[in-house]
């Protein structure tokens, strides 16, 4: 299974995409939930792994790969122009959203047939195959631009309140930080756009940052969590019992992390993305160790500074 690490330096091409992210994103505020926090301190935690969408960033549709707009043709047309692709090359009446969804479903079916429990695509490769079917040629830079522009127009994002300060405080306290998230190539660029620095510079260990498109497997599979936990054990001597995983979804985040021995915190800070899965009788029995409704609760209460 692929386990390539996120880049630790920003290339010129990535810098251009980061500039586009900053240009296309506008402030969002989290929507309150009716969930009460449970943030009494956890002891013995040496590392924190985060989900991204719905936890570290507000997602307009609640998660990656979904859409918060009804005007998908307009979003696609704008993204196509931004990528400097020839609109005349498209078939009349081309439905990009349906074509992309169909291509992803085909890829997922092939991966399941190969034994992957929760498949993930590389969205750039998916766009490339879709355009190849239309006999349209596009280089990697245009494909990445198209994918990024379309995503930002269909799923608005903005950092959760306190994001930068919380990461900085946890890193300063000596905690190892990482990501385990359903994500695409633009996800770390989005975080860099919001944080103003590469992820490694804000304390995120590249070896502990596992993104689904690089692994070809998505949450809730435990397969995406294992490399991060292996890196924590091998590089830092940190066992799963000393790891806190925080995410907004009982099925995708809390259940698999608990199954691997991690402590867990449910992030219930935005009604758009909170997934309690109360209609699933099995998941109703899954209870996170803690419940966080604001990121700042991590540093103020849940993971306080060591005395002295």
UniProtKB/TrEMBL annotation:
Which domain of life does this protein belong to? Bacteria
Q: Spell out the SUPFAM superfamilies in the cross-references.
A: HAD-like
Q: Which Pfam families match?
A: Hydrolase (PF00702)
PANTHER family of this UniProt entry? Answer: HALOACID DEHALOGENASE-LIKE HYDROLASE DOMAIN-CONTAINING PROTEIN 3, PTHR46191
Could you tell me what this protein is called?
HAD family hydrolase
């Amino acid at each position: 299974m692929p386990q390539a690490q996120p880049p630790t330096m920003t290339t010129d091409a990535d810098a251009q995409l980061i500039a586009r992210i900053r240009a296309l994103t506008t402030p969002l505020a989290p929507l309150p939930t009716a969930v009460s926090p449970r943030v009494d301190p956890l002891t013995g935690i040496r590392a924190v792994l985060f989900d991204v969408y719905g936890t570290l960033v507000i997602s307009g549709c609640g998660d990656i790969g979904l859409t918060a707009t009804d005007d998908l043709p307009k979003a696609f047309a704008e993204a196509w122009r931004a990528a400097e692709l020839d609109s005349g090359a498209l078939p009349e009446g081309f439905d990009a959203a349906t074509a992309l969804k169909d291509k992803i479903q085909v890829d997922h079916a092939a991966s399941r047939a190969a034994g992957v429990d929760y498949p993930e695509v590389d969205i750039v490769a998916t766009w490339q195959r879709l355009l190849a079917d239309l006999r349209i040629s596009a280089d990697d830079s245009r494909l990445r631009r198209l994918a990024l522009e379309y995503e930002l127009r269909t799923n608005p994002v903005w950092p959760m309140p306190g994001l930068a300060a919380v990461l900085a405080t946890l890193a300063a306290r000596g905690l190892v930080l990482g990501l385990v998230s359903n994500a695409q190539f633009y996800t770390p660029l989005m975080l860099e756009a919001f944080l103003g620095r590469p992820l490694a510079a804000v304390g995120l260990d590249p070896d502990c940052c596992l993104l689904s498109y690089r692994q070809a497997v998505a949450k809730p599979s435990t397969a995406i969590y294992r490399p991060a936990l292996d890196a924590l054990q091998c590089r830092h001597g940190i066992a799963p019992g000393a790891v806190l995983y925080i995410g907004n979804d009982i099925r995708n985040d809390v259940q698999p992390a608990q199954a691997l021995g991690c402590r867990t915190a449910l992030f219930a800070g935005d009604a758009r993305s909170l997934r309690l899965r109360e209609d699933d009788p099995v998941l109703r029995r899954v209870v996170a160790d803690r419940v966080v409704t604001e990121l700042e609760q991590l540093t103020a209460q849940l993971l306080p500074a060591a005395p002295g």
